[in-house]
Design goal:
Largest sheet: 7 strands, mixed
Number of strands: 19
Strand order of the largest sheet: 11-12-14-13-15-17-16
Number of helices: 10
Shape: globular
Helix content: 25-40%
Distance between the termini: 79 Å
Structural class: alpha+beta
Order of helices and strands: HHEEEEEEEEEEHEEEHHEHHEEHHEEEH
Strand content: 15-25%
Radius of gyration: 23 Å
């Protein structure tokens, strides 16, 4: 019991509501929250060992599937999670983290497309679950810290987001020399597509590493990386895909509404100096099935660019050493499956815009599955390894070009 005198003191201090909430929730009570960068969940009911919940679609037009939340107070219990909005559990179930989202693994316990369960170990006071393996500013900061002091990596600012966040602009290459080639790499035009970020990190690691590919890229190319095109969406845990009135990847026309895409359209042509040869925009696809479970390039409607995509495809297939398979035959030509004109009616995409820039020979978008690539597990390390394969293929492609 709280004494009347104690309540009066808390009222006087303006703390009654927080104190009442504290005493209403007994120590060790199960809680589910998304109050951290990248978090996304709406909890509908907690009844015993069952939690009913759904992904927060906020300003998304239609259905999408991203969710990420933290559970506390469940140590030693077996909790069943039931989603009430469609089937947002992916092909390998839920990803989970026991270290506040630093490392992730796929749950091996049974799951359905709309539910999963987890037996919380004793002492597991905080466990995170997600549709995929989140990558936010914290992960990028850890990468930058690992390479602090490297003169071949420079972090700058592209612009401020709508909410005042710094939108990073990274430059990789030798700062003291003018490069023969420039390359643009972008990701997270759709905020939830986090596995693409691990591939971008792997590409950057390879470009900075000792060895033939890194040394050649640093000697001959400058790589501009925009890791978070939708910075606010990444940090806020938005779906990002099909955001109303349109998402960032339909915002590259002259009437663009987002500061990131406006800044890209202004900065890149001036920075490139006519030396931009390659632009890669990395994405993740739909939740499951068909084309969504292998890596592929999205075929350009331009026959010339499609021809260059085919050249790059052969080089990427030949360069692949990592565990994630890539086959040139899996690339999706324009006019097939979802890659049709009607799916671009909302506005100009990043890859199509890049294809119009001076000097460009290859403008491509790649889709990297969230969890399963032709049977191979997509995770933090395998996605990074694919990024290293991309770097090798990029070196080979640039080396084949005339200045």
């Amino acid at each position: 019991m709280i004494s009347g005198l104690l309540i009066q003191r808390f009222i006087h201090a303006g703390l009654l509501l927080s104190v009442m909430a504290f005493f209403a929730a007994p120590a060790g009570a199960l809680s589910v929250a998304a109050d951290f960068p990248g978090g996304n969940i709406v909890v509908e009911e907690i009844a015993g060992d069952t939690v009913r919940l759904r992904q927060d679609r906020r300003d998304t037009e239609g259905w999408w599937f991203y969710w990420c939340f933290r559970v506390r107070g469940a140590a030693g219990r077996n909790i069943h999670f039931e989603f009430t909005d469609g089937e947002p559990v992916g092909v390998r179930g839920a990803a989970f983290s026991l270290d506040e989202g630093v490392t992730w693994a796929w749950l091996e316990e049974p799951f359905t497309a709309s539910s999963f369960a987890y037996a919380f170990p004793e002492g597991a006071d905080s466990v995170r679950f997600s549709f995929g393996m989140p990558y936010t500013r914290r992960e990028l900061d850890a990468f930058l810290a690992r390479h602090a002091g490297n003169p071949c990596l420079r972090a700058d600012t592209l612009c401020d987001s709508r909410k005042g966040r710094n939108v990073e602009r990274l430059h990789l290459g030798r700062p003291e020399s003018e490069p023969r080639f420039r390359v643009l790499v972008t990701a997270r035009s759709h905020a939830c597509e986090m596995m693409a970020s691990y591939a971008v990190e792997g590409l950057m690691e390879a470009a900075l590493a000792e060895g033939a590919d890194g040394e050649w890229l640093r000697a001959h190319a400058e790589i501009l990386v925009i890791p978070f095109v939708d910075k606010d969406g990444v940090e806020d845990g938005d779906q990002g895909k099909n955001r109303r009135p349109h998402d960032h990847n339909r915002d590259y026309g002259p009437e663009g509404i987002y500061p990131e895409t406006r800044a890209l359209r202004a900065f890149v042509p001036e920075w490139s100096g006519g030396r931009l040869r390659v632009a890669m925009d990395l994405h993740c696809p739909w939740i499951r099935g068909g084309t969504n479970e292998y890596i592929y390039q999205v075929g350009s409607r331009s026959p010339e660019n499609w021809g260059q995509q085919r050249r790059f495809a052969g080089m990427l297939e030949a360069a692949r050493k990592g565990p994630l398979p890539y086959h040139a035959s899996k690339d999706l030509p324009f006019g097939e499956a979802w890659n049709k004109a009607e799916n671009y009616s909302a506005g100009l995409s990043g890859a199509r815009w890049a294809g119009t820039l001076e000097g460009i020979t290859l403008a491509t978008a790649l889709e990297i599955p969230y969890a399963n690539a032709e049977g191979a597990e997509v995770n933090q390390e395998t996605a990074r390894a694919f990024g290293r394969d991309l770097a090798a293929a990029l070196r080979n492609y640039l080396e084949s070009l005339k200045e």
